[in-house]
């Protein structure tokens, strides 16, 4: 049965699954924009972002990583169906963390997604991981508008106190303007955006042609089991039930490694 988006009458932030392995909790969408909160818990000493509490599978850049990580949008990066729950026009909020539609409802990413999109590309430094989108929504222009309006935090926010990570893969805040500025969410997906109705086989064939990356080097996060059909191309799909979190990303990377590298 399709899940329904519910808006509680009282303001509360989105519930999160613990990135350190807690039991996932079904997110509920708030009537007020959720604030970004970044963990300061210690991670592995091998992590390129020591101030983040990353899952163990993501903390060692010497381990293999996918070259392209692709995300679905609805109920994967954000907790709603953009083509049925959002009533245009959209008004981006002043903090660029979400938007309000014509009915006054507010829409944003799942809480951990901005942090994930900011940091994930650099976990395999110096080999940047490309990010992409594969969505079958029937409202592609509305989805793109929301992606253009939301900003994600600068990667330098997650470096150590000197503005550098342990492995010197991120330059200082003073010398790297790109690392210290917020980015428009749509610009993070340098692997490409395939947003239109139809089988996601077509989406991935387009992503492969654009990037030249082998399907075997791709990891895909989606909330619908029917999209496992994409695995016949050779990629790995991780099914997520309550949105993308660090815990889910870690499990996805572990799954990809087990299939591609036997570990």
UniProtKB/TrEMBL annotation:
<feature type="region of interest" description="Disordered">
    <location>
        <begin position="157"/>
        <end position="176"/>
    </location>
</feature>
<dbReference type="InterPro" id="IPR023214">
    <property type="entry name" value="HAD_sf"/>
</dbReference>
<feature type="compositionally biased region" description="Low complexity">
    <location>
        <begin position="10"/>
        <end position="40"/>
    </location>
</feature>
<feature type="region of interest" description="Disordered">
    <location>
        <begin position="1"/>
        <end position="40"/>
    </location>
</feature>
<dbReference type="Pfam" id="PF12689">
    <property type="entry name" value="Acid_PPase"/>
</dbReference>
<feature type="compositionally biased region" description="Low complexity">
    <location>
        <begin position="164"/>
        <end position="176"/>
    </location>
</feature>
<dbReference type="InterPro" id="IPR010036">
    <property type="entry name" value="MDP_1_eu_arc"/>
</dbReference>
<dbReference type="InterPro" id="IPR010033">
    <property type="entry name" value="HAD_SF_ppase_IIIC"/>
</dbReference>
<dbReference type="InterPro" id="IPR036412">
    <property type="entry name" value="HAD-like_sf"/>
</dbReference>
<protein>
    <recommendedName>
        <fullName>Magnesium-dependent phosphatase-1</fullName>
    </recommendedName>
</protein>
């Amino acid at each position: 049965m399709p899940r329904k988006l519910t808006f509680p009458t009282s303001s509360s932030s989105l519930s999160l699954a613990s990135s350190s392995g807690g039991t996932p909790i079904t997110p509920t969408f708030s009537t007020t924009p959720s604030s970004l909160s970044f963990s300061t818990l210690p991670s592995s000493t091998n992590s390129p972002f020591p101030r983040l509490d990353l899952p163990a599978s993501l903390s060692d850049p010497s381990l293999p990583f996918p070259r392209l990580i692709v995300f679905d949008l609805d109920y994967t990066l954000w907790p709603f169906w953009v083509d049925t729950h959002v009533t245009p026009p959209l008004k981006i909020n002043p903090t660029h963390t979400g938007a309000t539609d014509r009915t006054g409802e507010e829409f944003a990413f799942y809480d951990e997604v901005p942090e994930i999109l900011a940091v994930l590309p650099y976990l395999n430094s110096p080999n940047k991981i490309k990010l992409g989108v594969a969505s079958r929504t029937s409202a592609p222009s509305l989805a793109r508008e929301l992606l253009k309006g939301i900003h994600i935090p600068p990667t330098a926010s997650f470096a150590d106190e000197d503005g550098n990570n342990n492995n010197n893969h991120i330059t200082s805040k003073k010398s790297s303007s790109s690392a210290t500025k917020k980015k428009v969410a749509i610009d993070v997906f340098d692997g490409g955006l395939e947003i239109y109705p139809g089988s996601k086989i077509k989406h991935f064939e387009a992503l492969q042609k654009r990037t030249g990356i082998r399907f075997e080097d791709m990891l895909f996060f989606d909330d619908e089991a029917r999209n496992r059909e994409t695995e016949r191309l050779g990629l790995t799909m991780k099914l997520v039930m309550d949105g993308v979190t660090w815990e889910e990303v870690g499990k996805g990377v572990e799954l990809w490694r087990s299939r591609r590298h036997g570990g």
